[in-house]
Amino acid sequence: MATTVVKLGSALVADDQGVVRDDVLAAVSEEIAKRSTHDERFVIVSSGAIACGLRELGITSRPTAMEELQAASAVGQGIVYRAWHEHLGRWGVRSAQVLLTFFDMAQRAHYVNARHTLATLLRWGVVPVVNENDTTTTDEISFGDNDFLAAQVAILVEARLLVLLTDTAGLYTADPRRDPAARLVSEVRDPSELRALEVGGSGSELGSGGMRSKVAAAEMVTGAGIPCVVASGTDREALATILEGGRAGTYFHARREREQSFKLWLRYAKPTRGELLVDAGAARALTERGSSLLPVGIVEVRGEFEPGDAVEIRHDGRVIGKGIVNYGSDELRRVCGLTSDRVRQLLPHASEEAVHRDYLVVLAP
Ligand SMILES: Nc1ncnc2c1ncn2[C@@H]1O[C@H](COP(=O)(O)OP(=O)(O)O)[C@@H](O)[C@H]1O
Ligand SMILES: N[C@@H](CCC(=O)OP(=O)(O)O)C(=O)O
Prior knowledge:
The structure is a single chain. This protein is α/β, with parallel strands linked by helices and 365 residues long. The protein folds into 2 domains: 2-263, Carbamate kinase (3-Layer(aba) Sandwich), CATH 3.40.1160; 271-362, PUA domain (Archaeosine Trna-guanine Transglycosylase, Chain: A, domain 4), CATH 2.30.130.10. The protein has helices at 10-13, 22-35, 49-57, 66-89, 102-106, 108-123, 146-156, 210-223, 236-243, 261-269, 280-289, 329-335, 340-346, and strands at 2-8, 40-46, 95-100, 127-132, 161-166, 187-188, 228-232, 250-252, 272-278, 298-302, 310-315, 318-325, 355-362. The longest helix is centred in the first third of the chain and has 24 residues, at 66-89. The protein starts with a strand and ends with a strand. The model has no long low-confidence stretch (mean pLDDT 90). Bound molecules: adenosine-5'-diphosphate and ligand VHF.
């Protein structure tokens, strides 16, 4: 079974008055319904809750207070989901509302549960309509924008493709709203090609991440072996062409083989709580030989963390890896720089590795 994740930003789901754009939802629902088969499944990631909620409440300018945005989202989410339910339902396609938080992705048990629930829905032929659960998120643990959420969902369901639909025809050499000479970039083989471009933030009042967050989401999924397309959500032909395997908008090529799902979760979803500064020998062992990190190679422990938390591993001012640490920060401060024999004398029950190679991802060579 191949799954495609299709994400629609706020500006597509709702117009600038906060009214659901039925024409857009109808067209996307029709495409999805026409193509949903036993072997081809879809997940929709839909923004628009805040925009629709503000309209329902008669609030004309976007509030800045977090609790007001969260409350508006609670009002609007039902409106957005109901619209999807009706549009998909017209084609006999069943749907389900799935609200996720960053916490669901960061806690391994929640992550695995979310994956099982989505897999079950897809097996039943139900289209999950996903949004962030804005009610319970705080600034620190929010996805921030749904491009990142869509990337996480694509990795979670091991999608064959992530489609980010927006209000421009794709990624341009500069923001097309500001620069009339901007040209559409038809494909990106490597993120380094993006350095020359002006990739900006949101151009609309209600969108949050702009093109920058789409490029970050694309980089995330392509690194996980999943290609990504950024395309227009108002051009009916674009989605049809993409789903048929043709080209429209900007195509980001998948970069390498899929990593194990645990390592993808660690790389992209698990937040870090502290930093381990390591010496040159340890840095080489990790990046060149794929070794575990032993206390002897650690020169400094920064931050407070518990065993099982993720930490950043740094050398020479650069992040070289991320891993699940076997020690709490206080214990690790006692033993860093010590050989395994000395560690055993001081802490007889502690593990030999500060971070085991199976729980470690290398981020920079
Ligand atoms: N290089 C670029 N190419 C295309 N769009 C860009 C670029 N830089 C900035 N943008 C802006 O990003 C906007 C899309 O982001 P956003 O408003 O957050 O949409 P969404 O709600 O779909 O996530 C575009 O309307 C455009 O104004
Ligand atoms: N969860 C929020 C969406 C956050 C957001 O702004 O997303 P996007 O428009 O995709 O950049 C909502 O539904 O309003």
